[in-house]
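Data availability excerpt. The first of two example chains:
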Amino acid sequence: MVFITEEKLLSWTKPASDSEETRCDSTIANIRNCIQNYDFGRLGQPEIRLRGSYNNNTNVKNDSDVDMYALFSNFWYNFDQNFQCIPSYGTGPSYSEFRNAVYLSLRQKYGTENVKNGNKSLKIKSNTYRVNADVVPVIIARYLGHDSLKGVAFFSQKGQFIINFPDQDYNNGCEKNKITNNRYKFFVRIFKRFRNELEVEGVLKFKIPSYVIESLLYNVPDQYFMSETYMIGLINIVNYLFGRLNISRFVEVNHIKDMFRHDLFPEQTATRMEVKAYLSLIWQSISEAQAA
């Protein structure tokens, strides 16, 4: 099991190293330049927007890939109260046209061997000066045709309609971090590094995505982060999650989508049972530290 001390938890609150940050910055600039210099014709020029751990400043070592949207803001999908796409009867471009155009622009820059067509994203392989990157072509998503609730949307290669709310994710995460005197993002990094260590040790047999960790901790009341030590905070947070996980509604950081609703959101793969098993492994490490 992972051995922890207060000093180790403190070190885990730090972001990725300066060298990793530099490679991330270089990757972003390189991809943005690639997109900006490609002719997308009637689709219009997409805007590159950051998403994920790097954008949210919760990235850690081995979690420093960059996730980006290529947003075609002149087009939109409308969705209903169940987050399902409302069919359009216009003659606009299909989603495959947006995806193929971005794929061709990346392939022209990086070569076919370095760009992979994933289920949800276009994946660019790392090398000595860039990190792995995921680029998702998206267009605007509007609730019942109105801008009062707006996100971005795309179709996976499996035909799943997926809506995300990156602006709300970013703003809510920053607000919680501010209220907790930066402790929210410190503890997100601690929980991510715990996951990484458990994976290395081979005791965590399933994936706990970074966004699941960010959302889990977003649901923890602010006062649980304001402990005298990180060890006490860790104990309090794990205890709270254990007590509430099976009986409470948990939301994503955007505070729009429920967690653990695979019936509505096919991209959600982590289950309550898996999260509870992950928390149990953390609790074993806490118990061993207390007994030492």
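And the second chain:
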Amino acid sequence: MKAKSIKGKSTEDIKQAIENSISDSFTPTVAVLFISVKQDRKAICELLDSKNIDILGATSCGEFTNGHQTEGEIALLLLELSKEHYTILYEDIADGSLDDTVSRLANNALKQFTNPSLIICSTGINLKGKLFEGEKLVRNLSQNLGPDKIFFGGMAGDDWTMKGSFVFTNGKETNYGLVALVLNSDKITLKGMAITGWKPMGIARIVTKSKGNLLYEIDGKPAIELYLKYLGMSDKIAENDFKIFEELSIEYPFIVERDKNETVLKSPMNIDSTEKALFMDIPMPEGSKFWFTHPPEFDIVEEVIEKASQLKKDTNEEADALLIFSCAGRQPILGPMATDENEGLAEVWNTPMAGFFTYGEFGRVLNGKQNFHSGACCWVTLKEKI
């Protein structure tokens, strides 16, 4: 497999970059495209289509390639793959069922290859303001593909506007759906890891009242009151203070216990003053065990890079390409360290890289099972077997 990463601030930039990349020794067949909602994604897709390049695309909350991180721009990873070794699957859920859609996508992947692995992007928030159910996608996809199958990816963003995100491929686009690059694992190997770096603080807490995304009580006490006290804020928060609250909640999520000693970050999105509850990005069922978190420290990035380096050493393998799906919350929290994290991963694997800041991540923790993540840096390498 051959790969090149390119970037641009406009359609014309990308057109020139593609023309400069294509040569007698490199003819890309696939483009993994991460693009701001401010850009003309239709024009970019038409450009790639004219070059007979298949597209896996998602809108973003910031994009990056080797040595370059942007907001409001365009990033691509161009891959030269044999068309016998991959296919692109697209599903528009529209008014249908997420369960049925995921089942159909999984069955189509298994029809294509007996041993498929996936790079998958879903929408993050649709035009009606509905958040995509990432946990349900991962659970159903794992059940239908089989627990041993590997997939990595992320939920599309929209530059933090929360008005609508999109995934797309050649000639097709949806604000509520999925697109996947399905690979023949007998020919293409995926290796990766999801990691957050946040640390628990204090005693474990228990959710004692919740419904869907609404969290009412923690340890029998009002969730709003307890969380705002943890943030050092008054529980008499005013409507005009909600923006401050939302910014803090990104930095101070909950670490929630889940199966086999794994954890997941879940963040309060805002306060539902009518219901007198915290509105969570991911539901927290009654009985959930969790911890408040320490503010992120400098060693978060070091942990990500060290674990990637150890995995490379343990497997003694190189990579042909690298994709990174990093939570949109990591950028405002980590600042320049978010760039250090992405660049550090590219340096570890010494390969062309592209990625974007997401509204949720799909992948495995080290030696763990397939899961949905929030607040994570989720990376995956691609390597063609010789």
